[in-house]
Amino acid sequence: MNQTNTQRQMRQGLLEYGVLHIISRGEVYPSDLIDELTQAKLIGIEGVLYPLLNRLKSEELITYRWVESEEGPSRKYYSITEKGKASLKNLANTWKALVLSISQITKKKPQPTTITP
Question: What is the pTM assigned to this prediction?
């Protein structure tokens, strides 16, 4: 088993939950999302984020608005929709159930091996 690939897949599976959670706290600019996700070690490259944002927008879980900037081009700020809040709640419940399941498995002590002749 390729441990690096497994870890990458686990992070990708949690990325949508993390993104929705960050956006649920208030409007966010993509570079701020990238910074927080990078610090949390959920993404290593920003190219992973933009396709996810587009999918979440297509699924009407998030929306965005353009804000004029005095320092350069307009900026896109993302916010969560009501549908997105419901999805986030479902993901939170799934996460809690998964943590409980894994905790139950990892708390068990190994059984001694019995060798039969």
Answer: 0.83
Give the contacts of 61 (CB within 8 A, at least 6 positions apart).
20, 80, 81, 83, 84, 87
Domains of the chain with bracketed CATH = 3-96 (1.10.10.10)
pLDDT in tens, 39-82: 998 887 778 899 999 999 999 999 999 999 888 899 999 999 99
Tokens 């419901």 locate to 86
In the numeric block, the tokens 């939950």 are attached to 17
Helices (H), the chain: 3-24, 30-39, 49-58, 82-107
**Largest CA-CA distance found in the chain, in angstroms, rounded:** 81
